[in-house]
Amino acid sequence: MTSSLTLLAGPDALRLLRERGLRPDDIDVLPGASGGPKWLVLAGLDRVLFGEFLKERTRPLHLLGSSIGSWRLACLAQKDPVAALERFAEAYVEQRYPPKPPPELVSTTSRGILDALLGPDGEEQLLNHPWARLHVLTTRCRGLTASEQRHAQLLGLALGAVGNLVSRRTLGLHLERVIFHTAGDTSPFSGLADLPSVHLPLTRENLRPALMASGSIPLVLAGVRIPGAGEGVYRDGGVLDYHLDLEFGPGEGLVLYPHFYPYVVPGWFDKSLPWRRAGPLNFRRALLMSPSPEFVARLPGGRIPDREDFVRMTDAERLRAWRQVLAEGQRMGDELRELLATGKLAEHVRPL
Question: Residues with Cβ < 8 Å from 104, sequence gap 6 or more?
Answer without folding.
Answer: 222
